[in-house]
Amino acid sequence: MPVEATNPAAWSEDALVVAAEVWSPCYFTGWTAAHHWALTEQVFRTTVLKTVERVRASPVHLLDHEYIVSHVSPDALAWGLKTEWVADTRLRFADPARTVVDILDAPRLGGGIRHGAEVLLSFLDDHDWRQLADYGDHLGNRAVFKRLGYLAESLGIGDEDLVSACRERVSAGISALDPDGPPGGRRVMRWGLRVNVTVTREGAS
């Protein structure tokens, strides 16, 4: 607990403030950022963040809070973030596009690919998909474009330009639609994906 905390009880009650003190420099992403930006109505008790600090284990239990914490390089904190102030503490959140890309990169951070599809649908209602392409290029994981393109095409969202942009970026090899989903699943060679989870527009809305 920081010595300058004027209200220790209130400080320890805010999971985001606690995380910022313990794992700084860090940023909040996944379902935590999705809820912050109103990209989902679902509320998760566990806080998702990425930090440049070394992480020994995840999830982490701290001061009655649960966290999913993952390590990133300092370069990852140089793009796609926005600053918010909470209880006199400077917090950094993945912006809406970075939130979606982080979830497509690691669907478990968004509650799985089904919930990730819901977040994507919400994002595309109000934002330009081109920022997703720019951030996906910056991140450098081609599986992001496999999942994005497959979801856009199979759910009928976005437009043909979005699908074409993803097709141009698909790499060789097979990736799982949801890496933490069940084994098996049909292979969709067009997208280089093993579709191990069924995602429908109704299920994602």
Strand adjacency order, main sheet: 1-2-4-3
Oligomer: single chain
| Helical amount | 25-40%
Distance between the terminal alpha carbons, to the nearest Å? 40 Å
Outline type:
globular
Low-confidence stretches: 1-7
Give the percentage of residues in beta strands.
15-25%
SSE run = HHEHEEEEEHHHHHEEE
Count, helices: 8
Number of strands: 9
**Biggest pleated-sheet summary:** 4 strands, mixed
List the helices and strands and how they pair.
Blueprint: H1 8-13, H2 15-23, E1 26-28, H3 30-36, E2 47-51, E3 60-62, E4 65-71, E5 81-86, E6 89-94, H4 96-105, H5 113-126, H6 130-139, H7 143-155, H8 160-168, E7 175-176, E8 186-188, E9 193-195
Parallel strand pairs: 2-4, 7-9
Antiparallel strand pairs: 1-2, 3-4, 5-6, 8-9
Describe the structure in your own words:
- By secondary structure, this protein is of the alpha/beta class.
- The protein is 38% helix and 19% strand.
- It has eight helices and nine strands.
- It has helices at residues 8-13, 15-23, 30-36, 96-105, 113-126, 130-139, 143-155, 160-168, and strands spanning 26-28, 47-51, 60-62, 65-71, 81-86, 89-94, 175-176, 186-188, 193-195.
- Strand 8 (186-188) and strand 9 form a beta hairpin.
- Helix 3 (30-36) runs antiparallel to helix 4 (96-105) and helix 4 (96-105) runs antiparallel to helix 5.
- The longest helix has 14 residues, at 113-126.
- Mean pLDDT is 91; it is low at 1-7.
